Amino acid sequence: MYLGLDLGTSGLKGLLVDETQKVVGEATAPLEVSRPHGGWSEQDPADWVTAAETVLGTLGQQHDLAGVRAIGLSGQMHGATCLDASDSVIRPSILWNDTRSHAEAARLDGDPDWREISGNIVFPGFTAPKIVWMRAKEPDNFDRIAKVLLPKDYLRFWLTGEHVAEMSDAAGTSWLDTGARDWSDALLEKTGLSRDHMPRLVEGSEVSATIRGEIARRFGLREGTPVAGGGGDNAASAIGAGVTKAGEAFVSLGTSGVLFAANDRYRPDPPSAVHTFCHALPETWHQMGVILAATDALNWYARLVGSDAGRLTDELVDLEAPGRTLFLPYLGGERTPINDAAIRGAFLGLEHATDRAAATRAVLEGVAFAIRDCRDALAATGTTIDSLIAVGGGSRSDYWLRALATALGVSIDRPVAGDFGGAFGAARLAMMADGAGEEVAAPPESETRFDPDPALTGAFDEGHAAYVAARQAIGTLS
């Protein structure tokens, strides 16, 4: 068996798979976020350990964990988890959705070295500006820092006693030379740190360390069980969905929206607000376009009209051309391609003919056009998308996937029911660390394929052009 552990913001999930990749066990433990001040988002790493103890204990009651051949890790990215010289946690981990370091991020990003070396804009959610904030606001804590770990890598430390990170997660710190797949001494120095403060780096499919004897004995694992490097949450999810080669991509219609494309070369383009990170496999990179409201936008609209999202989308049957009504889904700002935290959404072109169904279509189209913006940003770097898998709650809507396929001009596959997320990808990376080839990360079987509607392609092109014009117009009002 192989074990994948996925440390999310709201909980930790453990997934056991057998040698055929069939899921044979599953356990979860909830986590809560502390928000002591506006814009702050923190978790106590001790709670991650407690969650892991719960998950391993539950799985150990269901299965003999001595049969686990290797463990893989996936987790929320960007969190700053600081340890002192005795490996004690200095303060609660500052999470990916914490915005306190926005001023520090802007200052770092104003130095062209950061984009040049890391390949990305320095966003407030990334790790480096959080440490700069600590240096200014909590100097005593900063002076105690001996190691900075990412959330899943703190779990690795608890499991193995080793300070190790892997490339996909490290690329989201702003300290990684993403093209060279190594820490940048120059960028570390700019934040008052050195390579000594960083964990050693491995590839996601490599063995990073082995389980400590105490942990093995406590939960019935084999002594010396290897732990794979693993991956950041999106990279691990891509391994779970079989998105590993150039031309392959997935679109996630969750609370936010992600267009994730695998690359066989390094193609950074920071001004487009595209994330260019290392993938969880050697000599492979990936790009992500991110929108901040996907199903979040639909759920907002459903509350507005006193309905629920499923009912609204079920009322739509045949795909229609976009109407005059436009929706811009910037309810809390936008990431790709405009990187504007202040911009806000809007309905435009409302008229007497705009009924509930027309407004629902406008919301779905607006999200589809925002993802097309991401696709265009990726395409500007030379990235092509030949196959696309849809995941997330919004992928249950046939209408939405038909609209998205037509807006993007590419067929979209919805997988058969199953778990193809971060925990499953982590288990696959564990298989690779145990000697399996990358072919274990095959795409899932397709349940339904949604092809672009050639009769409506032109209308969706015109709709997107109107969307772009509207986006540029409301940007002046923010």
Distance between the termini: 53 Å
Overall average pLDDT: 95
Number of helices: 16
Range of helix content: 25-40%
Which secondary-structure class do the elements indicate? Answer: alpha+beta
CATH 2nd-level architecture of the largest domain? 2-Layer Sandwich
Strand order of the largest sheet: 18-19-17-16-22-23-24
Q: Work out the strand percent.
A: 15-25%
CATH topology grouping of the largest domain:
Nucleotidyltransferase, domain 5
**What count of domains describes the coordinates?**
2
- The total beta strand count reads 24
Principal-axes shape call: globular
Task: Report the CATH superfamily of the largest domain.
Answer: ATPase, nucleotide binding domain
Radius of gyration: 22 Å
List the uncertain runs. none
At the first level of CATH, the class of the largest domain is: Alpha Beta
What composes the largest sheet? 7 strands, mixed
